[in-house]
Write a structure and sequence with these properties.
Elements lengths: L1 H16 L13 H5 L2 E8 L5 E8 L9 E8 L6 E2 L7 E6 L5 E6 L6 E6 L6 E2 L12 E2 L5 E6 L5 H10 L13 E6 L5 E3 L6 E7 L5 E7 L4 H6 L2 E6 L4 E4 L12 E2 L5 E6 L9 E6 L5 E3 L7 E7 L5 E8 L2 E8 L5 E5 L4 E7 L5 E8 L2 E9 L6 E2 L38
Antiparallel strand pairs: 1-2, 2-3, 3-4, 5-6, 6-7, 7-8, 9-10, 10-11, 11-12, 13-14, 14-15, 15-16, 17-18, 18-19, 19-20, 21-22, 22-23, 23-24, 25-26, 26-27, 27-28
């Protein structure tokens, strides 16, 4: 009996004396590593702020030649993500319904790209109607949830089809054609309607809070030069009739437009000089009678503007030095007060309806883009999912001493305008 007891005890003692297993050495990043990464495509917080949708795509290299994306749901306070979609064709562009009970997304699971809607508590996505055009933008719910809007290139007319046949399929690259238009899709009936008349190209849009009109960014053609140098912001009704041109004149890239909570104003970003430095924050009345640059006192490059729920300020994402800084742009004073500046890049953000929760896409030198959430003042930041845990075995740069990741503390005084933090 003693011999039987002694044998396992001796084995345990021997194991305890052995050196602990060493972690495998880190390796330099290879092209194959990069091709196999999971990419974050979009992040959207629910209207009540309690949940976050994100789209993540991955290429099964070397078996697949293109990435396939799926939609995931995760609590904004943290928890295990839940995969909502799983078709072989993939899904993209998830959007919350206004009541937070449904999700719309785009998929080619049944052939050409179509809009699908599924309940947030689970179930199969149901195709809404049968579109003859392929959405080129994410679908956006109307404020009342009775329809969705999206951009698409209309079917070619009979004359265009005849012209293409006569040319033998030869395309003149610099010729204005295939102008993107605004469409609506009734829910749940699935009736599609073209809103804009086809006289200009639409590059972005926003619903008015009452659901009776849109703000658009338009240009005379789909050509990059026209959209870069001669865009305009306009308001149109549901029939596509122009109600007002909101930008004082056609100019460099303007948009995307955002209605104020009361629907009386529209904001967008634009360059006050040159073509690429988005240092202007336009605020125009929805009837086109007034216009001003709310960021005239600042010298920042804005990558996104959103209205705060009170309508008295804009939440602005600016790229300052090597990091992103979120600021509250007070419309009465013109001051841009910073409240969140992690040591990395915030590629996009979204506020919930009450302005209490913030969801965003964040990356830094040592970690690829991942979905994060925080309180609206930037505190309590939390990474919601690690999309690429394998990067722990890669040789990557480290943050400098004193820097912090998205969840760290923040000194607002270090990020006044003009200070490169």
């Amino acid at each position: 009996m003693r011999a039987r007891l002694f044998a396992p005890l001796a084995l345990l003692l021997l194991l305890a004396m052995l050196p602990s297993a060493q972690a495998p050495p880190k390796h330099a990043v290879t092209p194959e590593d990069l091709l196999g990464m999971t990419r974050l495509r979009s992040v959207a917080v629910s209207p009540d702020g309690n949940q976050v949708l994100y789209e993540a795509s991955r290429r099964e290299y070397p078996l697949a030649d293109r990435p396939v994306g799926h939609v995931y749901l995760v609590p904004s306070a943290g928890g295990p993500p839940r995969q909502m979609t799983a078709s072989e064709a993939g899904e993209s562009s998830p959007a919350w319904s206004p009541d937070g009970r449904r999700i719309a997304f785009v998929s080619r699971r049944n052939g050409p790209a179509q809009v699908f809607v599924m309940p947030v508590d689970g179930g199969e996505g149901i195709q809404v109607g049968k579109l003859k055009v392929a959405p080129t933008s994410a679908p956006e719910w109307s404020p009342g949830g009775e329809s969705l809007a999206f951009l698409a290139v209309p079917e070619p007319s009979a004359s265009e089809q005849a012209e293409e046949k006569e040319s033998g399929g030869v395309e003149i690259v610099e010729q204005p054609k295939d102008l993107a238009q605004l469409f609506t899709l009734s829910y749940p009936e699935g009736k599609a309607s073209q809103v804009t008349p086809g006289e200009y190209n639409v590059s972005s849009f926003a619903w008015a809070p009452d659901g009776r009109s849109f703000a658009l960014v338009t240009a005379k053609s789909q050509l990059l030069y026209d959209n870069m140098t001669a865009s305009a912001v306009r308001a149109v009704d549901l029939s596509g009739k122009t109600l007002a041109v909101l930008s004082p004149k056609d100019g460099p890239v303007q948009g995307p437009p955002r209605f104020s909570p009361d629907g009386k104003s529209v904001a967008w970003r634009f360059p006050t000089r040159g073509l690429s430095l988005m240092n202007g924050a336009a605020v125009a009345s929805a009837d086109g009678k007034s216009f001003r640059n709310a960021a005239e006192k600042l010298d920042l490059h804005f990558s996104q503007l959103e209205w705060a729920p009170d309508g008295g300020s804009l939440v602005a994402l600016a790229q300052e030095g090597t990091r992103s800084v979120l600021r509250r742009l007070d419309l009465s004073t013109g001051r841009g007060v910073p409240f969140y500046a992690p040591a990395g890049v915030v590629s996009g953000f979204q506020l919930d309806r009450k302005g209490e929760r913030l969801a965003f896409d964040f990356s830094d030198p040592s970690s690829p883009a991942a979905p994060w959430a925080a309180r609206a003042d930037g505190t309590g930041a939390l990474r919601l999912a690690d999309l690429n845990p394998q990067t722990g075995g890669w040789l990557l740069p480290s943050l400098l001493p004193g820097d912090h990741q998205a969840g760290g503390r923040f000194d607002p005084g270090a990020h006044e305008p003009g200070h490169d933090g």
